[in-house]
Design a protein that fits this description.
- The protein has 204 residues and is α+β, with helices and mostly antiparallel strands.
- The chain has one domain.
- Helices cover 39% and strands 20% of the residues.
- A five-stranded antiparallel β-sheet has the order 6-1-5-4-10. It has a three-stranded antiparallel β-sheet with strand order 7-8-9, with no helix packed on it.
- A hairpin with an 8-residue loop joins strand 8 and strand 9.
- The longest helix has 18 residues.
Length: 204
């Protein structure tokens, strides 16, 4: 088990490239959902993402790179860009994670290969785009660093458990509330092979 974290994701999202991706990822249902054309959506998003001036101590500043912190559009454009990043980065590898689950800028990974190859994997994804850099924390003492505020670890009674106030009380981390499950599933991305995805969904 490995945890990957993207350094300062929102402020490092390449705005021009991300807007270009947005104009290409629409499907055939777009006309049923909005009268806007892909080019119009591109132009509106580009305008919003570049309207990043702010005032501090009576001085006005313009953010020159990335999406603005606190903007409701920032997580949307960041997720769209990262889906594209993950697809292209992982497709060019011969050794891939068996599971890659990202929630915004935190990614939980199951790596079935050796640690040396894990280092090569980190170097590969950090060289894939000049703006996107990952840090990595590996499993220690059968547990991995936090992912979405939980601490997954191995336990004989459950595939993954998390620590609680009582260290002798393991709690299964799988959520069962339908709204919670669908929210986390839709906000995560899984550009890995179909087998681990289907296995995870059957567990849910």
């Amino acid at each position: 088990m490995v945890s990957f974290d993207i350094e300062s994701l929102f402020t490092n999202v390449p705005v021009t490239e991300s807007c270009r991706i947005v104009s290409k990822v629409h499907d055939d249902t777009l006309p049923d959902r909005t009268p806007l054309t892909p080019d119009e959506i591109h132009d509106l998003m580009y305008f919003c993402l570049n309207s990043t001036s702010f005032k501090w101590r009576d001085n006005y500043y313009q953010q020159l790179q990335g999406a603005a912190m606190g903007s409701p559009l920032s997580p949307v454009i960041a997720n769209i860009f990262m889906e594209h990043f993950e697809t292209t980065a992982l497709q060019t590898l011969s050794q891939r994670p068996s599971l890659w689950l990202r929630y915004v800028d935190d990614t939980f990974v199951i790596w079935p290969h050796n640690r040396r190859d894990l280092g090569h994997f980190l170097a590969h994804i950090n060289q894939h785009h000049p703006s996107i850099k990952f840090t990595m924390e590996t499993e220690q003492n059968n547990s991995t660093p936090s992912y979405t505020s939980s601490l997954p670890n191995r336990h004989p009674a459950s595939p993954l458990t998390k620590s609680t106030g009582n260290p002798h009380t393991p709690i299964d981390i799988f959520a069962t509330d339908p709204s919670t499950v669908h929210t986390y599933y839709n906000q995560s991305t899984t550009p890995s092979s179909a087998e681990p995805i289907n296995s995870a969904m059957s567990t849910i």
